[in-house]
Design goal:
Layout lengths: L1 H54 L4 H6 L3 H24 L3 H25 L3 H6 L3 H28 L2
Helix pairs in contact: 1-3, 1-4, 3-4, 3-6, 4-6
Length: 162
């Protein structure tokens, strides 16, 4: 019985070794590209969050240190909202330069749209500074909606080049 099992499992074992070896080789050759793409995208995200924090009429970090949950929701929401189109850009880019060009472009569009949203909802930032979580949730919801639409546009834009 043991010999029959060995005979049955031998081709499976060989196939698994070949596939695992291919996977390890693929990882080894793709890891540097992965690291560069991730690093470039995270740098653009950090830049976007920094610029947004500078443009915000109140200091989120200071408000969060004071224990303002609305400020934490607002800042967390902008981090997620900025990362959504950047993720779409990274997923559809062919190299790091592509990520920089499209990432910075989507970042500028996103920051512009977010400032317009802030102007239309002009009293919301003041309410967030006063700790009103409901206002922060509304603002984050609008910003996330814009982020998803921009991500879809960014994901299709590279295809237009070819």
């Amino acid at each position: 019985m043991n010999e029959e099992l060995s005979t049955f499992l031998a081709p499976l074992s060989e196939r698994m070794n070949n596939e695992f070896g291919t996977a390890v080789q693929s990882f080894a050759s793709g890891a540097p590209t992965f690291a560069v793409h991730l690093g470039v995208t995270l740098l653009i995200l950090w830049l976007g969050v920094s610029v947004y924090s500078f443009l915000t009429p109140f200091n989120e970090a200071k408000e969060i240190k004071r224990g303002n949950p609305a400020a934490a929701v607002a800042l967390g929401g902008i981090i997620v909202a900025l990362s959504i189109p950047l993720a779409a850009v990274m997923a559809t880019s062919i190299n790091w330069a592509d990520i920089v060009v499209w990432g910075v472009a989507t970042l500028f569009v996103m920051l512009f749209v977010l400032r317009v949203v802030d102007l239309f909802l002009s009293n919301v930032p003041k309410r967030i500074a006063n700790g009103e979580v409901a206002s922060a949730v509304l603002l984050v919801s609008v910003k996330l909606a814009v982020a998803f639409v921009l991500a879809a546009a960014a994901a299709g834009a590279p295809l237009a080049r070819y």
